Each structure stands twice: as structure tokens, then as C-alpha cells.
Known about the structure:
The complex is a heterodimer of chains A (325) and B (332).
Chain A: H1 2-14, E1 23-33, E2 36-37, E3 44-46, E4 49-67, E5 71-75, E6 80-83, E7 88-94, E8 98-106, H2 110-113, E9 134-135, E10 140-150, E11 160-167, E12 173-178, E13 183-184, E14 187-195, H3 196-200, E15 210-213, H4 216-227, E16 231-233, E17 248-252, E18 260-264, E19 271-276, E20 282-289, E21 292-296, E22 304-311, E23 316-323
Parallel strand pairs in A: 1-14, 11-15
Antiparallel strand pairs in A: 1-2, 1-7, 3-4, 4-5, 4-6, 4-8, 4-10, 8-12, 8-13, 9-10, 10-11, 14-16, 17-18, 18-21, 19-20, 19-22, 22-23
Chain B: E1 4-10, H1 14-17, H2 22-25, E2 35-39, H3 43-55, H4 68-71, H5 118-127, H6 136-144, H7 147-157, H8 163-174, H9 183-188, H10 197-209, E3 226-227, H11 241-244, E4 253-254, H12 276-285, H13 304-315, H14 320-324
Antiparallel strand pairs in B: 1-2, 3-4
Helix pairs in contact in B: 3-7, 3-8, 5-8, 10-13, 12-13
Amino acid sequence: MKAKHLLLSAILTGAGFTAQAQTTIDLVLNHQFEGASFQYGTVYDLNGTAVSLSRAQYYMSGFELTHDGGQTTSMPDAYVLASGNVSSYSLGMENITSLEGFSFDLGVDAVRNGMGTQSWSAGHPLAAQSPSMDWSWPGGYFFWVLDGDVDTDMDGTPDQPFSLRGLGNVLLTDVNQFTGMSLSGSTITIGMDVNIADWLQTIDLASVFSQHDAGSNNQLISSNTNDETVFTLNASLNTEELTLEESNIYADYQMAYAPTIYYDLATANNVDITVVDMTGAIVLEASKQNPEGNYFIRKELPDGTYLINFTNGEINKQFRFVIKN
Amino acid sequence: MKAVVYFGFFVGVALLLMRCGSAAMSEPIGATNRPLMSEVDSTEFYRVKLGKHLFYDPILSRDSTISCATCHVQELAFTDGLPKSVGIRNRMVTRNSPTLTNVGNRTMFLLDGVNPSLESQVGVPIQEHNEFDFHVLLVIDRIANNPTYAGWARKGYNSEVTEFVLKNSIASFERTLISDNSPYDKFIDGNYAALDNGQKKGMELFFETLNCTECHSGPDFTEERLTNNGLYEVYADSGRMRLTETEADRAIFKVPTLRNIAVTGPYMHDGSIETLEEVIKHYESGGHPHPGKGKEIVPFELTSEERSNLVRFLEALTDNDFLTNPAFRVDY
């Protein structure tokens, strides 16, 4: 990917273009929970109540950049499907030299929200995901998925599941304009802290159970996005800084017959992934994957225990998970 | 040299042609005939063929036990005869399976019209816990592993099996499910003897005397008005409100087509009314009070002869060619 970008700018310069060079724009999201670094399955204190999350994913779209003395450029095709365990995203390339500000929407704009996952080729953030980011019956995307458990008997252990998934065009949320920036270079990296706790403020999680709709609690998540400060600029963030000291791996068992493994590894380099069964036979493999991501066990496997291995020269990490059909 | 296959049915383009003022809405109208041709070896031919086979193939369900055709049976005009459908592992679906008659003419899908396209709708049973309970990416893998299907995808789409291929091929098949050869259509086409006297009297009741066409209008007896027909005072199914969360949408449903209605019982979103006669008695009563109820639902009285004429008119909407057309089946 990087090599391709370089090649393209080389061609542009070589051809004698005097126009501004294409600048790669990256996004780094530092997910946290009230200042603590965010991890699935970790128990956090939310205003005196214990909560943990098993999934935190959301769409960002409608990016608009302010640059080079107040010009604006919109990026209508830049979609980010952000995950709580993943910090690095690429927005694409634009003709800008110095980035002064930007804004975006939480959710997916109405036109694309009505087009259906089948309109996108595999791998696009709007294509079919696992676990699903769309709910097929109303034909729209979950603008966010915040699934987890909340403590209802005040013993400090989350015991009751909640699932908040915003669905419906009314929830498309302008996120406050970010200004006063001055970033330049061949790659511009926008760094933001994302405080997941702020989305959940004032929501009575014990009474949520499953709300996949545009109802009042999902409207609260929408309004909390700005009234609280879920997204804040963090000019100094870059991917290297976010490299962990310890790897985090978590299995999402919403589809117990085909789980997704959420991982965030203590390395900045790509990894090879293999999935083996108990006899040691390889059932799935993928090479040169990002050191953070969501790996879908996209294969129908018999019931049993399996191991997923993440390796590169630096790390060698195993995680055990089960398949239950 | 390419042979031309006539699937033996015609497309109703009447929808486009017949949209006149509201006075004309209460005139009987039939489908205007246009031959739908699909050339053998055309891309469309392979799209429909692939979609038809997928419609009948249980590999779309997680445990490979049921297919679309389990709940959408041709002889029943693609319904299942049950009050509410049953999915894998005998899981109960919350609604009655609707007919797929002329479903390609619809612009909104599901009983409350919340789904935007036939393509998107294919994803619903795949994902629903009570239906196929599966994941679209794993369905695609199963289809891609079938060399016959992969071959048809190549011929129809010049592509490997993708989500688009899966959804568009099934939708393409569904768009061929055209019914326009009922006795009523023959009558509209000028065959005056296609309806008997009682049916003609029933037709007059339907189009002129009663309010039916305020909702069941147009060539398919629906123009997708979203309303309520006073089935209950309190509904177990919240209708369109399940998506919009708006009180005004409570128990609001899409007006259903009445084509092939005599073979699609039991009736209503929950299959709670068994016969057409009882449906008419429901309308005669004026229904239960409900804030969303269409103002046209008001009590009226029919003699038993009139009621039976109206039922017999509705029976004249049954298109036997549609129910038996071999082009809608696969023969294993």
C-alpha cells in the first residue's frame, strides 16, 4: 500500500505537475475508558457501576478537511469502520499541504445507508462484516455497536448483558468541528482519543437488554457524542506510540459456530496467522496481516477447541477458542 | 444463433400506465401484457437460473434443512399455508409468510415495508435467528464451492460468487414471478365470459360499492399504502414502529396484494383469519378502534349472497398458470 502511494507521487512529480502533491491522510484512534486504555472484557467503573464491553464498533463518514488557508475538501468516499481494539485507519489521499481542521459524522449517510452491503466489494467498510454491522431487515447499518455487560447486583462483577446498536438515518451525528491544527508532511496523521465511557453516560444500562433501533437510548449515544467529549484531538498520537506492551486477544462468540477473534498485538509489524485444530492440522491461515484487527473464522468447522497463532520475528502469541455449532 | 425462450408469462407494466386520477382508481384494471424474453445463454438467463436454484437450495440455511421455498411454496403462490412461518430447528417466526406474486413490482418489502429492495431483502432470512440463522459470507463460501453455481455466476455476472451475485440472482428470479393470467385478467383483456355473474357482482362490490380500492388499488391491488385495517385494538406486533420507534407507526402495515389471495390463507400479518369469508366479515364489522386505522374502514352490511359473490370475485384472482408454471420450479 505504502509503496503504491510513493509510486503515484513519483509519477505525478515526474510528469512535471506543479499542483500540490497527494497527501496520505491517516487516522489514529486511541480507544479508552475514562483515561484507561480500552480492552474488551476488562471491567471498568462507570460512575460507580462495573461494566465491561465485548464489542465496540462504529462508522465514521462525511469527512471534511479544512486546509491550506481555510480551503475545504470533502472526502465522500472515505468510510471508517472503527473497532475498539484497532487504532490505525487510512482515509485516503487528498491534494493538501497543511491540515488545519476537520469534521466527520458518526454513522453512514442516508444514501449509502440504503444501498445494502451487496453494493460493495469484499473488504470495504460498507461490505458485509463479521460480526455483522448491518441489520438486513430494515436494510441499514448499525451506526454503532456497543455490546457488553453491566453489574446489576452491585457486587462489582458485570452480570447482565446489554446491546446498544444505533440504526436509522435520524441517528447520523455531526461530530464537533476540530480546528486549530497544523499538520503537514507526505502523510498526515490525525490522532484522536475516543472515550467510550462518554457514550454510555446517563444511560441506565441495567434496563437496556437489547436495543437495536433509533430509540431513546441510542439517541442518547448520539447526543452524548458531542455533549460529552467522546472524540478529542490528540495531536501527538501516532501508531508506534499505541503499540502495546502486552497483546490482547478476545473471542467474539456472537456466532458461536464462526467466532471472530479481536486482537491487538504487542508489535508494530505485520503478523502471520494460523488456526489449528487439536491435532495440529492447519484449518485456516493468512499471512502479513495487520498487528491489530478482527479475524473472522470464515470456515465451517466441527465443534471443538482450536488455537489461533499470531507470529512474526518479534512475537509468537497463541489463543485458544472453541467452536460450537 | 440464439433461441428465444418465452417463460410463458407477461410482465405487468400497467403500474406505469394506469396511474390516473382517483376516480380511475376504482375502475377494474388488469396487467398490460409485455412479453418477457430471456435469451438462452444471455447473462439474464444465467442470473435467473442461478437465483432460482438458490431459492430452492437449503444450503442457505445454517443446518441445510430449509430453503426460501420452505416458506414460499409455488402452489400456494409462494406462501406456506401456516399462520406463522417456521424456521430452522422449528423456530417460530413472528409473522405470516407473504405471497411473492408480482413482488418485482413492489418498492418496499416486508409486511411493514421497512426493507428497501428485493436484493436487500435476501439478507433478511439469511441473518434472522428464526429463519436461516446464518451469515452471508459463509453462504457465499458454500455457493462458491459448488462448481455448477460458480459456473453460472461466471456466465451471468462474469464474476466469482459475491454477495451481489447471491442477492441479485435471487432477486432476478423473484422478478420473474409474474402473475397476470387469472380469470379477472382474462376478463379485463376482453374475455367477458371469464367471470361468471356472481363474480361480476362481487367485482362491482369490490370496485364500486365498498372502500376496498382505497387501499387495494392498482394492477396488483396494492399501491403500498402504509396503514392499518383495525384487526385489533392492541397489537402484539408493533408493525413499522419496530424500526421507527414512532407512535404513529404502531401496527402500521403495508397493504398486501390480493392476487392469488384464495390460495394464500391464513390471512393478515399474524395469520389470524382463516378464510376469505371471515376477512370480509372483519371489514363488515368496521374493525376495532385503532389510532392508525384507515378512515375508510367503516362498518357495512352484506347479505350472505353478496358476501359470497365478493369471495368468489377474490377467487377469480387466482392464476393457475402462475401456480403451476414449471419455469418457477427446479427439477432435481
